[in-house]
Amino acid sequence: MNFGYWHNCFQLHRGLLAPVVVLLTIPFLIVGAVFAFWWMALAASIVIIPLVVLNYRDFNLMSQVAAGFRAMREGRFAEAEALLRDALEMAVYLDPDDPRRVILFQDLSQVMRRLGNYTDAEDFGKQAVALCETVWGNECADYLVAAHLLGEIYIEIARYGEAEPLLLHVAQVRDAKYRDDPGDLIACLHLVGRMYAEQSRQAKAEDYLRRGFELIARLDEQATPEGLAISFNLSQVCAEQGKLNEAESLAQEAFDRIQKQTPPDAYQVAYALYQFARIRQQQKRFEDAEDMARRALALIEKLVEADQPALALFFNLLASILAQQDKWQEAEDFSRRALKLREDYLAPEHPLVAESLEIIAMILERQGRMVEAEGFTQRAQQIRAFHSPLRIV
């Protein structure tokens, strides 16, 4: 998804039009003045003055947007927000439906998302989608990118009812009109599959992930980050449905590809070990599962900060494996750490929060601590009911 980069570059070059034309015209102005070619000097002036006036604001605006985008790419999100909000104020002279606003809305949406400000992230994302639809329609490439990114935001805050129609439309249009460039279709199929998996709609998740996996295989790109991620997610969905042989085969193939890298990507190795641990758990090979889960956790803890929500995935897995071996205290410690991370980062009604609540409740119930467990169970049930297709809004 290079929307921001390429469009910022395009608009910056457009803003540079005035300085370039001015530089090319100045020699004519000088020659006209020196040699008394008054008509040449007059013509040059007629060209220079309007261009300088009309393009000066464009040049400043797009320079500001490009600086904000550069800060975002380098991970300086607070600085990027300040730059882009200044650019938004500078853009008041643009018409409400000026396509250049799309770039600004899109970049601001992504910065707000990275800063955890999902209210503004959604607002700017919706403005980008609406403007793309107004200017170009809902089947153009820019609209599809904007809708995809807004769908990602909705998934992160567990608003699947709003994410689903957006992303299904994107997948349908990309499949029908952009088959010659399948990369974005693969990314969309992967995202839709993950969305259904988070809702425990495993059959639908498998359908979209398998379509993405087949496209990846056709392009011989199974070793790319996208290809490996789809392989692991498809493996997990298969495991959840009891298709353990296929799940293990997919995970092993992905792991073998990782091992061929020089050096192997540690983050991908950690997720491979995580997936193997899940499969061993479902095979009831708990000692093997615990060993792999601990190795995965040890590796991921070296790669991310202690407050990163990615750790919750590994904490929960290890907690559930330990609980199945009656190692209650350690299991409870890991499950509570996972819940805290998810509550700090995710929306209160996110299904992953419900998953952590259910794991703690299970651990407490098996120890006979029913009163304590009941509070966690009720909260989890409320979240599950919130996402039920039978819920009356």
List the helices and strands and how they pair.
Layout: H1 3-15, H2 17-34, H3 38-73, H4 77-90, H5 100-114, H6 118-136, H7 141-156, H8 160-177, H9 183-198, H10 202-218, H11 225-240, H12 244-259, H13 266-282, H14 286-303, H15 310-323, H16 328-345, H17 351-366, H18 370-386
The helix-and-strand class reads mainly alpha
What distance separates the N and C termini?
34 Å
Gross morphology is globular
Q: Uncertain segments of ≥5 residues (pLDDT<50)? A: 1-18, 31-41
**Whole-number mean pLDDT:** 84
Number of helices: 18
Radius of gyration: 26 Å
Beta percentage is under 5%
The percentage helix is: over 70%
Number of strands: 0
Largest sheet: none
Reading the helices and strands in chain order gives: HHHHHHHHHHHHHHHHHH
How would you briefly describe this protein structure?
The protein has helices at residues 3-15, 17-34, 38-73, 77-90, 100-114, 118-136, 141-156, 160-177, 183-198, 202-218, 225-240, 244-259, 266-282, 286-303, 310-323, 328-345, 351-366, 370-386. By secondary structure, it is mostly helical.
